[in-house]
Amino acid sequence: MSVNIATARYEGLGKDGKGHVATKSGALDAPYGFQTRFEDAAGTNPEEQIAAAHASCFTMATSFALAGEGHTDGSLETTCKVTLEKDGDGFKVSRSALSLNAKVPGLDKAKFEEIAAGAKANCPISKLLSCEITLETTFAS
C-alpha cells in the first residue's frame, strides 16, 4: 500500500479567496482558486489535477498490460479531458474522456483495443471516479 500526500490552503473566502496546492514530492506547487478554475488565470484547478492523474494512471496501466503480454517496445500518449458542469446549486465532474495515441510494433488493433479497455476499467483512478469515463484510441503498429 502507498499513501501520497497533498495539501491545499485557501486564504479568504469564495471568489475573492486565493488557494495554494502542493504535493509532498514537490511535483505540484501551484496557486488555485476561482480565477484558475473558471477564468483561465495562471495556476491549476482540481479538474486539471484529476485529468493529469487519470491520464498518467491509465497510461501506466496500459504500459504494464502491454508488457505483461510480452511487448517490449512502443510509445503511449494519453490526453484526458475532465468536464466540470453545473449541477443544481453546485457543480459536478460529469466526464473523464481519455484519448490514447499508441504505437506498438507487432500488435494488432483488436488486441490493442482489448488491452486499452482493460486498463481503462482497472487503473486505480478509473476505479476512483464515478463519472462517465470514455476512451478514444489511435493506433499504429
Describe the overall structure.
- This protein has 141 residues and is an alpha+beta fold.
- Helix content is 33%, strand content 37%.
- It contains four helices and six strands.
- The chain has helices spanning 34-38, 46-68, 109-122, 124-128; strands at residues 6-11, 18-23, 29-32, 75-87, 90-103, 132-140.
- A three-stranded antiparallel β-sheet has the order 1-2-3. Strands 4-5-6 form a three-stranded mixed β-sheet, with helices on one face.
- β2 and β3 (29-32) form a beta hairpin.
- α2 crosses α3.
- The longest helix has 23 residues, at 46-68.
- This is OsmC family protein.
- It comes from Novosphingobium mangrovi (ex Hu et al. 2023).
Compile the SSE list and pairings.
Elements: E1 6-11, E2 18-23, E3 29-32, H1 34-38, H2 46-68, E4 75-87, E5 90-103, H3 109-122, H4 124-128, E6 132-140
Parallel strand pairs: 5-6
Antiparallel strand pairs: 1-2, 2-3, 4-5
Helix pairs in contact: 2-3
Comma- or semicolon-separated keywords:
141 residues; alpha+beta; three-stranded antiparallel sheet; three-stranded mixed sheet; 4 helices; 37% strand
